[in-house]
Amino acid sequence: MATTTPTTMTTNATGTPRRRLRLRRFGDYAVLSVLAFVFVLPVLYLLLGSLKPSGEVLNGLSGFLPTHLSFDNYAHVLDALNSDSTGYFWRFMGISLLVAFVVVTGGLFVNSMAAYGMSRLKWRGREAVFTLVLLLMLVPFESVAVPLFYMFNEQRNTIYIQAIPFVANAFSVYQFHTFFRSIPPSIEEAARLDGAGPWRTFFAIIVPMSKPVFASVAILTFLTQWGSFLWPVLMVSDPSVRPLPLEMSVFQGQQPPDWGQILAFGVLLVLPVLIVFAFFQRWFVQGVASSAVKG
């Protein structure tokens, strides 16, 4: 008996923590599954509703049943926006892509350069400037939209005015600044010994090492700009330069509303965002993970 008791106690001692660990892991997966279901549910309803007749979309929980599915709503949307009087769907899409491309590419260059100057270069007043950037993060765009409207009133109904105010972004500068500060100074010191100046050091060394943060900023900037609505409402009245989100509001306001076609329009609006995220997903996850660890 004396030899079996310690073995039993050891088994119980090691078995209890394992059981607790399994229960905790099961609880974590259960909570994550519920949260994933809650987030996926509207997307699933959007996708199924876009494939169903308009009369079956607003039927409560029965709207999730995959019945009478077809791509007729997508065909109707593309046919409805295919004339000079209504505008062309692909033109609206192209304007949104062009504006988003200018904002993303210009923002990556401008904001990364600004963050590099405030994080890696030594000059008088850089901490005060960075503090000002942090304060700008607290200012919502809605508070400056009307002053910007009066400043650029003569440039209304142009494509470039939809992009210019959003190239410089305080939050993007903060993201770049946080990542650049984590890079060891010895790397720049070695480049300096090889005769590299600030420009060469930034483009040849810092940028290749910072792919995760560039991807994170690109995705977040594209997502924000793609869904921009307030600024186009203020600055765009000409249908020929109307972006896709603004055109969706016009399309949705038609009477009587066809909810199947509206949801199909929504899927077409979301599709470019999913494509961009799928393309940059690996670097985006690395950037978020590294920011969490370094923060």
Automatic annotation (TrEMBL):
<feature type="transmembrane region" description="Helical">
    <location>
        <begin position="88"/>
        <end position="116"/>
    </location>
</feature>
<keyword id="KW-0813">Transport</keyword>
<comment type="similarity">
    <text>Belongs to the binding-protein-dependent transport system permease family.</text>
</comment>
<keyword id="KW-1003">Cell membrane</keyword>
<keyword id="KW-0812">Transmembrane</keyword>
<feature type="transmembrane region" description="Helical">
    <location>
        <begin position="158"/>
        <end position="176"/>
    </location>
</feature>
<keyword id="KW-1133">Transmembrane helix</keyword>
<protein>
    <submittedName>
        <fullName>Carbohydrate ABC transporter permease</fullName>
    </submittedName>
</protein>
<dbReference type="InterPro" id="IPR035906">
    <property type="entry name" value="MetI-like_sf"/>
</dbReference>
<feature type="transmembrane region" description="Helical">
    <location>
        <begin position="128"/>
        <end position="152"/>
    </location>
</feature>
<feature type="transmembrane region" description="Helical">
    <location>
        <begin position="29"/>
        <end position="48"/>
    </location>
</feature>
<feature type="domain" description="ABC transmembrane type-1">
    <location>
        <begin position="93"/>
        <end position="280"/>
    </location>
</feature>
<feature type="transmembrane region" description="Helical">
    <location>
        <begin position="259"/>
        <end position="280"/>
    </location>
</feature>
<keyword id="KW-0472">Membrane</keyword>
<dbReference type="InterPro" id="IPR000515">
    <property type="entry name" value="MetI-like"/>
</dbReference>
<dbReference type="Pfam" id="PF00528">
    <property type="entry name" value="BPD_transp_1"/>
</dbReference>
